[in-house]
From TrEMBL:
This is DNA-binding transcriptional regulator LsrR (DeoR family). Belongs to the SorC transcriptional regulatory family. It comes from Labrys wisconsinensis. GO terms for molecular function: DNA binding. The keyword Cell cycle does not apply. Keywords: DNA-binding, Transcription, Transcription regulation. Pfam families: Sugar-bind. Residues 60-311 form the Sugar-binding domain. PANTHER family: TRANSCRIPTIONAL REGULATOR LSRR, TRANSCRIPTIONAL REGULATOR-RELATED. InterPro entries: NagB/RpiA_transferase-like, SorC_transcr_regulators, Sugar-bd_dom_put, WH-like_DNA-bd_sf.
Length: 312
């Protein structure tokens, strides 16, 4: 027996098959219905127009979560993708939703600030090219000294190429060795010019990172184990633009945060539209903190994270 209605089964089967790429046999196990029924559901989804170039609808439970998120966090938009069959696929599904959102939200003469992370990287790679007039992209974070696929500068360049926009980068490392070096880097006129452009952005697209080993900062070896442990002891939930946040959304008082070369995360709330795209249960704490800090108007996440946010 399954806990889902016929319509929910149809939508979930379509999502698992067309977006996640599962076999019909795997989907039948996941949804606890026969393989023949899965086949009929997919045929019906195509005939009824649920399947077009993308999944037009989602499960009713996702729509309900979206409405609850709007009310709880004062959002103007919330997009919740269904829980993936494999937890590791969360960032890919959130990225797909973010790419569709951004392709529609970007407009002529718009200035867009861009953060970084695995989800944003995938979102921008998947985004359909749509040239705009007089658009500008500004990287909100310094770069890496060694070329990497997740380099913050690559995220900005990717979006700029997709929308045919001018692109401005922060010519500094993501982390300085010492706070005084960070202050020297950030005081440069060229850097301040980019920061001031970011302050005039119409929209900011950012993600958040966890403190776990799967986090981007951990994977890139920016910090040592002792620093991570100190941040955890101080109540850090994760990071936004490489700055670590406490549960209330405030910046953690630690030397690591004084070494970050980036747009000040506390100033994100002044940008008219802040879009946060991130998912997974391990991100619940930092998502809640980031929503408080940035006063984001748009959240793109998954069922698991949405349920965690609403349970708190």
């Amino acid at each position: 027996m399954t806990a889902y209605s016929e319509d929910e089964l149809k939508i979930r089967a379509a999502w698992l098959y067309y977006v996640e790429g599962n076999t019909q046999e795997r989907i039948s196990e996941q949804l606890s219905v026969s393989r023949m029924k899965i086949h009929r559901l997919l045929v019906a989804a195509r005939e009824e127009g649920v399947i077009q170039f993308r999944i037009r609808d989602k499960a009713d439970s996702c729509f309900l979560l979206e409405e609850q998120l709007l009310k709880r966090f004062g959002l103007t938009e919330a997009i919740v993708v269904p829980r993936p069959a494999e937890a590791a696929a969360v960032h890919l599904l959130v990225a797909q939703a973010a790419s569709l959102y951004l392709a529609n939200a970007a407009a002529d003469a718009m200035t867009i600030g861009v953060g970084w992370g695995r989800t944003l990287n995938q979102a921008l790679r998947r985004m359909t090219a749509r040239p705009l007039k007089q658009a500008t992209v500004v990287s909100l974070l310094g770069g890496l000294t060694k070329a990497q696929p997740l380099n913050p500068t690559e995220c900005a360049w990717e979006l700029a190429e997709k929308i045919d926009a001018a692109c401005y980068l922060l010519p500094v490392p993501a982390y300085a060795d010492r706070p005084e070096m960070r202050d020297a880097f950030m005081s440069q006129r060229a850097v301040q010019e980019v920061i001031n452009r970011a302050r005039r952005a119409d929209m900011a697209l950012v993600s958040v990172g966890s403190l776990g080993p799967e986090g981007t900062i951990s994977n890139y070896g920016f910090l040592d184990i002792e620093e991570f442990e100190e941040l955890k002891a101080l109540g850090a939930t994760g990071d936004i633009l490489c700055s670590f946040l406490g549960e209330d959304g405030g910046l953690i008082d630690h030397p690591v945060n004084r070494r970050v070369c980036a747009f000040p995360p506390e100033e994100l709330s002044r940008i008219p539209k802040v879009v946060i795209a991130s998912g997974g249960y391990e991100k619940v704490g930092v998502l809640r903190a980031a929503l408080a800090l940035t006063r984001a108007s748009v959240l793109i996440t998954d069922e698991t994270a949405a349920l965690g946010l609403l349970a708190g």
